[in-house]
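Good day; I would like, with your permission, to put a structural problem before you. A protein sequence and the structure tokens that stand for its backbone fold form the material at issue. The record follows directly beneath this note:
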Amino acid sequence: MEDKLKGKKILIVDDEPDILETLEDLLPSCKVVKAKTFEEAKTQLEAQTFDMAILDIMGVDGYKLLEIATRKKVAAVMLTANALSPEDTVKSFRNGAAHFIPKDKITEITTFLNDIIDEETGSKSLLSKWLDRMGSYYSEKFGENWKEDDKAFWAKLDFHT
């Protein structure tokens, strides 16, 4: 199987060293740049070119980093444990995130990153793919009606769940 991530330059940002190490281990074919603070990450985003960025939300001001990544046209993945909610998910997507991943799904990171690469050639939107992968997880975690608070956002997707 072709490694679509081979050689991709990815910024990973988290204030937890074990998360940085885990991500680096899960992405052996990528050129990984790590940052533990907002300031480090901001400096890296402004000084270098990245294919993607994996951003923690809490502890490193992930939403401000998302703004920078979006402005620099870097595909951003929000990775979180503490900000895991339907509201933060919608906020992330509305602010330009390519994906939103709970930290307990970290071992599936390559699948989500490959979705970003595949989006250019695929017929299904990245958000629809995210919902296919995460919809049942969210229903289990937040209840069957987790999309109710933002029906307009979820209704624009071309699928039925």
Observations:
- The longest strand covers residues 75-80.
- The mean pLDDT is 90.
- The radius of gyration is 15 Å.
